[in-house]
Amino acid sequence: MKRYFTPQEKSSVFSRHPCFSLDAHDKFGRIHLPVAPACNIQCRYCSKKYDCANESRPGIASRVLNPNEALERVRSLVERNERLSVIGIAGSGDPLANDATFEVFGAVHREYPDLTLCVSTNGLLLSERLEDLLEAGVSSLTITINAVRPEIAVNVYSWVSYRGELYKGMEAAECLLGNQWAGLRAAVETGLIVKINTVLIPGVNDIEIPSVARAAADTGADIMNIMPLIPKAEFEDKQRPSHEVVSRLRCECEKFMPQMSHCRQCRADACGTIGEDKDMELEVLLSRIGEEYCDMVL
Questions:
Q1: Which CATH number goes with the domain that contains 224?
Q2: N or C: which end of the chain has fewer CB within 10 A?
Q3: d(CA 102, CA 99)
Q4: Is residue 2 in a domain?
Q5: Where are the beta strands (DSSP E) in the chain?
Q6: Is 166 exposed, middle or buried (0-12, 13-18, 19+ CB in 10 A)?
């Protein structure tokens, strides 16, 4: 596959990406557009049954946007916040399983070619849709990889839906892992900036995570983000790993690749700088109120 991005271009994107660079996280803003509700795998820790505006948790959003609404949201934020540097799609399902992802990215890229486009995926369809991502203007991506060995992954995922077939057990684990690592290799070959997300699940994949770091580093990924489990769904009875446990594991994995330490496990509709977690519905409402007030004054 053709290499689309030079090391210099990667460095420029990295320096302005708040999720990839500690130096950038409080200087530049990002917005996650919730346009991708469909998902092709079931993680045992994932639940989207409810949403609270004050809750920061991956995979949840106040509502799903259609492509036109998503583009209008970007326009509104660009006008109001000149620090916006990254447009991301991170759910609430898997972006690559939703055609709206590519429609939105293409529209944003045509209108705002200087903004960085970033996608977060489970990697099941990455190899198959990588060219589509590149054509839409995407320059950075995050792949959530929680294991190297199928015997570990089988305890993380309930099922995988791939090419019209539903897989469970070891077949699901082998299918997903094979596609994730193949997709990672293909993405690295294009020169994309690649971050690996790994959810630390005590007693399930904790001993596996250094192996994920080593394998990802050997493949050429740029940075790793170890995220503590948020106890939900099948893992609701597990304890969330402490900051000390996560920090020790990051130190161990840092021998293989750089570690992200400022993640806030953002919502699928987050906006602003990392840690702000503004509610997008409120943001749009306030924007409309402001516009109506200006019209009244004028």
A1: 3.20.20.70
A2: C
A3: 6
A4: no
A5: 29-32, 41-43, 84-89, 116-121, 138-144, 157-162, 165-168, 193-200, 223-228, 271-272
A6: exposed
Q: How confident is the model over 50-83, as pLDDT tens digits?
A: 444 444 455 555 678 999 999 998 998 888 765 7
3-class state of residue 220 by DSSP = coil
Residue 1 inside a domain? The answer is no
pLDDT surpassing 70 at residue 117: yes
Task: Supply the pLDDT for residue 86.
Answer: 86
Mind listing the pLDDT tens digit for each residue in 24-38? 555 567 788 999 999
Residue 166 lies in a domain: yes
Contacts of 258 (CB under 8 A, 6+ apart): 222, 223, 224
CB 66 within 8 A of CB 100: yes
Evaluate whether residue 112 is within a structural domain.
Answer: yes
Of all residues in the chain, the percent with pLDDT exceeding 70 is 76
Q: Give the pLDDT confidence score for residue 53 in this predicted structure.
A: 46
- Nearest residue to 267 (alpha-carbon basis) of 44, 99, 63, 116: 63
For 74, residues 6+ apart whose C-beta sits below 8 A from its C-beta are: 31, 33, 87, 108, 111, 112, 115
Question: Which among 121, 43, 139, 149 has a CA at the least distance from the CA of 85?
Answer: 139
With CA atoms as reference, report the closest residue to 231 among 268, 269, 195, 265: 265
- Residue 80 corresponds to which tokens in the numbers above? 């109001």
The band of 290, judged by pLDDT with boundaries at 50, 70 and 90, is very low
Reduce the DSSP state of residue 134 to 3 states and report it: helix
CA dihedral 253, 223, 150, 44 (to 10 degrees): 100
Beta 157-162 vs 41-43: how paired, if at all? antiparallel
The number of distinct structural domains making up the chain is: 1
| pTM across the whole model | 0.84
Contact 225, 172 (CB under 8 A): no
